[in-house]
């Protein structure tokens, strides 16, 4: 081993030890737990079985996975549209204003996740600010049911994870060479064509990164569905929570957790591969 490699290994050792002790080992224990049975009165019966993973294919639990994916996918789509537009506007602003605009974009992260979610309860409940605003402008009918709906859950997910999309999309947008868009316009392309044929393809890796972040964090979320959905919308995160803390079925909860982790790792791997391929393509264009 060369001195340079030895130095790099020594520098990485603390981080690798930290990840191994607090991530790899716990995940391994959870995986092992999924191959045992639940005791008659709860707890764990150390008898090997594959039943817990077989239950994942049950229509009831498969439906919860599909519902979680649909809600997370909808939140991701909305967050990408809004986040990309916001990132585009920030990147198009004068340079000296961009840090302040980015500060405003990440400002919600300065407050606790629970506080941000409870704030939406204040806004969406029947006596909340939205209902009061409607009454101020003359609306006298039955207040709309905004809280404890699927729309409220999606709204909460979009709001809480939108900054991830903005930051992921802003990075490639801020590095774009303005001369490329200018050359496209000089060749007769309309602004929309320039965006579709030049700007969008060169920032797709940022969109993919933001979308994966939102989807992965949303599909496993259990706080937002519990608070804004009122328990009416069972997502996979709520199901895992219930197995560990209510049903006392740790083996099945472990199997659900590992299935969720497998989905997340698969998406993150695909995103990393796409980013690496996009980086290679951009280097080839630059070298050419």
Question: How would you describe this protein?
Answer:
The protein has 288 residues and is an all-alpha fold. The protein has a single domain (53-287), classed as MetI-like (MetI-like fold, Orthogonal Bundle), CATH 1.10.3720.10. It is built from 13 helices and two strands. The chain has helices spanning 3-33, 51-54, 59-92, 98-106, 113-124, 129-136, 150-174, 178-186, 191-202, 204-219, 223-228, 236-245, 250-287, and strands spanning 37-38, 44-45. The protein has a two-stranded antiparallel ribbon. The longest helix is centred in the C-terminal third of the chain and has 38 residues, at 250-287. The chain is globular and about 75 Å long. The two termini are 36 Å apart. The model has no long low-confidence stretch (mean pLDDT 86).
What structural keywords apply?
MetI-like fold, 13 helices, 74% helix, mainly alpha, single chain, 288 residues
Let me know the average pLDDT. Answer: 86
Task: Supply the CATH superfamily name.
Answer: MetI-like
Helical fraction equals over 70%
Instruction: Classify the oligomer.
Output: single chain
Q: Could you name the CATH topology?
A: MetI-like fold
Q: How would you sum up this structure in a few lines?
A:
With 288 residues, the chain is mainly alpha-helical. It contains 13 helices and 2 strands, in the order H-E-E-H-H-H-H-H-H-H-H-H-H-H-H. Strands 1-2 form a two-stranded antiparallel ribbon.
List the helices and strands and how they pair.
Layout (H helix, E strand, L loop, with lengths): L2 H31 L3 E2 L5 E2 L5 H4 L4 H34 L5 H9 L6 H12 L4 H8 L13 H25 L3 H9 L4 H12 L1 H16 L3 H6 L7 H10 L4 H38 L1
Antiparallel strand pairs: 1-2
């Amino acid at each position: 081993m060369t001195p340079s490699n030895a130095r790099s290994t020594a520098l990485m050792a603390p981080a690798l030890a930290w990840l191994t002790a607090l991530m790899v080992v716990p995940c391994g224990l959870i995986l092992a737990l999924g191959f045992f049975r639940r005791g008659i009165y709860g707890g764990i019966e150390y008898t090997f079985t594959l039943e817990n993973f077989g239950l994942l294919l049950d229509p009831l639990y498969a439906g919860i996975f599909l519902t979680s994916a649909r809600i997370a996918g909808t939140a991701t789509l909305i967050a990408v549209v809004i986040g990309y537009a916001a990132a585009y506007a920030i990147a198009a602003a004068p340079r000296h204003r961009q840090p302040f605009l980015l500060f405003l974009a990440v400002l919600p992260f300065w407050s606790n996740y629970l506080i941000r979610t409870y704030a939406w309860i204040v806004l969406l409940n029947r006596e909340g600010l939205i209902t009061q605003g409607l009454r101020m402008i003359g609306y006298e009918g039955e207040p709309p049911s905004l809280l404890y709906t699927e729309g409220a859950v999606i709204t909460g997910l979009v709001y809480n994870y939108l900054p991830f999309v903005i930051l992921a999309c802003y990075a490639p947008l801020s590095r774009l060479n303005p001369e490329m868009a200018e050359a496209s316009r000089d060749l007769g392309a309309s602004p929309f064509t320039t965006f579709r044929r030049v700007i969008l393809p060169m920032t797709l890796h940022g969109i993919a990164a933001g979308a994966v972040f939102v989807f992965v964090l949303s599909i496993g979320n259990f706080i937002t569905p519990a608070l804004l959905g009122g328990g009416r919308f069972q997502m996979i995160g709520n199901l895992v929570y219930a197995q560990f803390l209510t049903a006392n079925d740790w083996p099945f909860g472990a199997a659900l957790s590992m299935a969720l982790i497998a989905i997340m790792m698969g998406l993150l791997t695909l995103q990393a591969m796409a980013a690496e391929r996009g980086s290679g393509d951009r280097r080839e264009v630059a070298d050419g």
